[in-house]
Amino acid sequence: MASHADLGALFECGPRSANPVRRRAQIELAVDRGQCIVWDNNGQVVGFIVTLPDHFFGRDFVDLLVVSESHRRQGIGRSLMRIVVKSVAAAEVWTSTNESNIAMRGLLASEGWSFSGTLRGLDEGDSELVFYLRGMDV
Description:
- The chain is of the alpha+beta class.
- The chain has helices at 7-12, 20-32, 76-87, 102-110; strands at 36-41, 44-56, 59-67, 92-98, 114-119, 128-134.
- It starts with 6 loop residues before the first helix and ends with a strand.
């Protein structure tokens, strides 16, 4: 689990957010609530995942998955997703990603997540795609 000592590394991990103040508050809250798991590589935080229990219509929701650019394509995101899926008490887990996020869409497809639908209007010109993993898959 992430701790306050990890906050600086969490803020620096991954690409810059369009709204860094909001992202910072989101990460701090997740750490405070014990909802953030970090991936440590020899003492360096290179990825993390934030899961919100009962957040999405009473279902657990993977809110944020971030892997530093220099550590992508090494299975870290996949491992973090699997840790979350195995640790949740719910019968299903949900997540979403921008349509433009080809890497995340590929990860979800390869892990057997089902497509639920599209949300338009959140990010101009880049729809949000919603996915779930249910039942025996979880």
